[in-house]
Specification:
single chain; 386 residues; 15 helices
Length: 386
Amino acid sequence: MSLRKYLDNIKPTFEKGGKLHAFRSVFDGLETFLYVPNTTSVSGTNIHDAIDSKRIMSFVVIALLPALLFGMYNIGYQNFAAAGKLAEASFWNMFMFGFLAVLPKLIVSYVVGLGIEFAWAQWKGEEIQEGYLVSGIIIPMIVPVSCPLWMLALACAFSVIFVKEIFGGTGMNIFNVAVSARMFLFFSYSSAMTGDRVWVATNSIFGLGNTLPDAFTAATPLGQLATGSMPDASLADMIIGFIPGSIGETSVIAIAIGAVILLWTGIASWKTMGSVFAGGIVMAVLFHALGMTPIQWYEHIVLGGFCFGAVFMATDPVTSARTETGKYYYGFFIGALAVIVRVMNPGFPEGMMLAIFFGNMIAPLIDYCVVQCNISRRAKRVTNEK
């Protein structure tokens, strides 16, 4: 209550005519983040729901936490495994090492992204939106642990300015902000985003972890496939997540927990999510039958960013298909394209982020075709009834 009273006391300072009225959007953003707004519409027809955009973003962040926390642990696990010291490493040593490796990335992502959004809102005199709360945590989760902070800052700035704000802000962007940041990094600084040297933290942090030799390398299972060799990780390690990879993408179990939360709360579409897996499975089975990929379909699904992309990024309600029928086509296209890129382009062993990017591109076309088909079908029905 004391915080509520304090905000009420200083609020007039930020209102029109107050000394700090120029920072009204900053105060409004802080207030709506801490409390549900108590303003109501005075006219017109309104739809009332028990959940608003802030609550939706909060649930998505909660759903992301299992993958993020496991990613922190896996960073430490991979470091100690590479040093040959797993037997003497405790859970907390490995987790705290990973926590310290990821924390600066989270801070940079939010400081840069939210800083730009705050400045943009002040400049245009608009309210600060909550959209970056999710993008700000996803972006660090889909990059290698060795990604330099300045690169991450550039990617966040690029995606917020050119992918989100320039289109009108939250709810108006046609491409997923986090996917765009990942694409920017891959095509601008490919050597820092792929290869065998970027997936394992090689330097100790505040006395935690191990400093590995400069020549140390560790390929992801998909990276091994791209070079013509079979992955040396077991299926159990692939599912649990004890493999090199982007920070939050390795554990299928942790991602599945997030998927349950999103589906249970109704935030993510099961049609989109399920169709992504269906498309990936169909193409993986086909390519394996043709002898074009040496691994089984279920290995394609559990490797790389496939599960993470299907659960947290393809289901983005802003950039995905919005018609109920279109969601099936949209998801299937993404899953199928991800496996096609993996199998047919060894220079791009992942494929999922590129597939989501192209999926975002054609989502409006899918919706348009679905709507036009419905119109034609109904017009034909009316004609036949006459």
